[in-house]
Amino acid sequence: MSTQTLPEVDTRDSTGDDTPKMFHYVRKDKIAESAVTGSVVVALCGEVFPVTRSPKPGSPVCPECQRIYNNLPPGGDD
Known about the structure:
Region (Disordered): 1-21
Largest sheet: 2 strands, antiparallel
Number of helices: 2
Order of helices and strands: HEEH
Protein name: DUF3039 family protein
Structural class: alpha+beta
InterPro entries: DUF3039 (IPR021400)
Organism: Actinophytocola oryzae
Distance between the termini: 64 Å
Strand order of the largest sheet: 1-2
Number of strands: 2
Mean pLDDT: 81
Low-confidence stretches: none
């Protein structure tokens, strides 16, 4: 029996652009925690991911998150 080492395969996006296609609404107290520890967050739409980027003004927002957010009752900024 013999073994062989295979060449390393690059599975990264070839465009080099790791900007999310859209941003999601997430509990703000979880954003910093995720950014520091790499833990995952759950968006209003149910998407689960680690926070890696901050949205810039005009960034596209997940339509499902936006719909849910618009239907939430007004609340405090605790």
